[in-house]
């Protein structure tokens, strides 16, 4: 047999039927659902008189619409309240596990899947959400799907998919102080563009990747979609196994030993063919920040905003021109020192324990600038419990930051946490589209370290000056 990539191994293992020229029927190991993209899918099942094929392989949580205020308070937004209530009702009717607002396991779908041990190497994982690639950090082939596909998976536990191309991203070297996993992925997207990986699945490898924690790896795979990739994954290794060991839904006893044996067969074979390649020298990277309205519009923190006229591609040139007009920024100027109004640390990209430890390392013994509102929003109740056990919430509150309840929060303006028109935010989320964090809001994407530095100074700051 010819050498295969991990992507091909997982694909081959899950193909039910594959005919030449047609999409393959792919078996799905884990289907994650939330309150936004599932209501129409359940209604479709009712109309057709269908049941959920594998309730044991389906997991639901409320995250997008969930307010991050006191859980004892009613949900003010009636649309959000109805969507959450509908999710709970659908899950009761179809016999599904649902971690809703008052569950001790509630959280962002891409945070709770790994922390419960539901996401495992070699799996196929889908969700009606763009950032499902997060689960690829554990060596799973994980990707977002549309509402009609959500219905299809609920009914059949299978999905029609065309086999993706492969894209090897090799990152070697040691990250310098102040440079994080978020900076790595922002640098990659800035390098290859938001369409650079269209039709492909990333495999991230190299010494830098191997040195990252599982939480840092999830930050990188999470944003694979922002470079146009269908998914992104990292081959499982000892970091993966140690992360999964003992988690509630991970294999136990002899089944654990058998799982490890299977998982060790997953890494790509020597000599496996990839359709594309990219390399990054991690030691050369600086903290990154975006200046525009797509994650690909990123520059090193000490850089200057590009001149649109210097961009050869006319479509890209016009996109940058429009983005700068929306952001009210001037080309050729640095972002350092630009005032900010809001700082947000959270989301499925950077809402894990390691992210709050990083933010706390900057905020400890310091105060949030009086002009800035700083929101610290854990990605799950488990993250919240762990952070509070370490006293991180006390550091945030002493600094003047808000310590909120779990949810998607200001990643998208659906839950009460949003920017006012014209406000600037340094955000650890994954998208800086126009209006994404509130109509007229302007977003700079950055790492938790860079975000925390901006919270203290009130302006975009090179965190390396504060370490």
Computed over alpha carbons, the radius of gyration is 21 Å
Work out the helicity level: 25-40%
- End-to-end distance: 51 Å
- CATH class of the largest domain reads Alpha Beta
Mean pLDDT: 97
Strand order of the largest sheet: 5-4-3-6-7
Based on the structure, what is the oligomeric state of the protein chains? single chain
Strand content bin: 15-25%
Biggest pleated sheet = 5 strands, parallel
User: What overall form do the CA principal axes indicate?
Assistant: globular
* Class based on secondary structure composition and strand pairing: alpha/beta
Number of strands: 19
Counted up, domains total: 2
Task: Pick out the low-confidence regions.
Answer: none
CATH topology of the largest domain: Aconitase, domain 3
The CATH architecture of the largest domain can be named as 2-Layer Sandwich
The CATH homology group name of the largest domain: Aconitase, domain 3
* Number of helical elements: 16
Write the layout of secondary structure elements.
Blueprint: H1 6-14, E1 15-17, E2 24-27, E3 30-33, H2 39-48, E4 58-61, H3 78-94, E5 97-99, H4 109-116, E6 124-127, E7 141-144, H5 147-156, E8 158-161, E9 165-172, H6 181-192, E10 200-205, H7 207-211, H8 214-222, E11 231-233, H9 238-244, H10 254-263, E12 276-281, E13 288-290, E14 298-300, H11 314-327, E15 342-345, H12 347-350, H13 353-363, E16 373-376, H14 381-389, H15 392-399, E17 402-403, E18 424-427, E19 442-445, H16 448-457
Parallel strand pairs: 3-4, 3-6, 4-5, 6-7, 9-10, 9-12, 10-11, 15-16, 15-18, 16-17, 18-19
Antiparallel strand pairs: 1-2, 2-8, 13-14
């Amino acid at each position: 047999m010819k050498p295969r990539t991990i992507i091909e191994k997982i694909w081959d293992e899950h193909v039910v039927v594959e005919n030449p020229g047609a999409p393959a029927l792919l078996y799905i190991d884990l289907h994650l659902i939330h309150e936004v993209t599932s209501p129409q899918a359940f209604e479709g099942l009712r109309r057709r008189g269908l049941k959920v094929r594998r309730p044991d392989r389906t997991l639901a949580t409320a995250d997008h619409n969930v307010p991050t205020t006191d859980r004892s308070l009613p949900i003010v937004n009636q649309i959000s309240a109805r969507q959450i209530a509908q999710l709970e009702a659908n899950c009761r009717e179809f016999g599904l596990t649902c971690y809703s607002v008052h569950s001790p396991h509630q959280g962002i779908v891409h945070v709770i899947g790994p922390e419960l041990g539901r996401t495992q190497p070699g799996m196929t994982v889908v969700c009606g959400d763009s950032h499902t690639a997060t689960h690829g950090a554990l060596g799973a082939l994980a990707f977002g799907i549309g509402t009609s596909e959500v219905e299809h998976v609920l009914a059949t536990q299978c999905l029609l998919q065309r086999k993706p191309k492969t894209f090897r991203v090799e990152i070697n070297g040691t990250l310098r102080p102040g440079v994080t996993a978020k900076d790595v992925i922002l640098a990659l997207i800035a390098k290859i563009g938001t369409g650079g990986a269209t039709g492909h699945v990333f495999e991230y490898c190299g010494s830098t990747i191997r040195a990252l924690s599982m939480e840092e790896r999830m930050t990188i795979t999470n944003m694979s979609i922002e470079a146009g990739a269908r998914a992104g994954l990292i081959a499982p290794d000892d970091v993966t196994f140690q992360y999964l060991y003992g988690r509630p839904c991970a294999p136990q006893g002899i089944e654990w030993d058998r799982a490890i044996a299977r998982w060790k067969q997953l890494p790509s074979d020597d000599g496996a063919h990839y359709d594309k390649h990219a390399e990054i020298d991690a030691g050369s990277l600086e903290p990154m920040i975006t200046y525009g309205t797509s994650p690909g519009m990123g520059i090193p923190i000490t850089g200057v905003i590009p001149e649109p006229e210097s961009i050869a591609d006319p479509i890209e040139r016009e996109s940058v021109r429009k983005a700068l007009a929306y952001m009210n920024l001037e080309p050729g100027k640095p972002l350092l020192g630009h005032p900010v109004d809001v700082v947000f640390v959270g989301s499925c990209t950077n809402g894990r324990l390691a992210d709050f430890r990083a933010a706390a390392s900057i905020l400890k013994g310091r105060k949030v600038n009086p002009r800035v509102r700083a929101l610290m929003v854990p990605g799950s109740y488990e993250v919240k419990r762990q952070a509070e056990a370490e006293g991180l919430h006390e550091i945030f509150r002493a600094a003047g930051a808000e310590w909120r309840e779990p949810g998607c929060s200001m990643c998208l303006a659906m839950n009460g946490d949003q920017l006012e028109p014209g406000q600037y935010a340094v955000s650890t989320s994954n998208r800086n589209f126009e209006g994404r964090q509130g109509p007229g809001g302007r977003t700079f994407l950055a790492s938790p370290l860079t975000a925390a530095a901006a919270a203290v100074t009130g302006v975009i700051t090179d965190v390396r000056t504060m370490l």
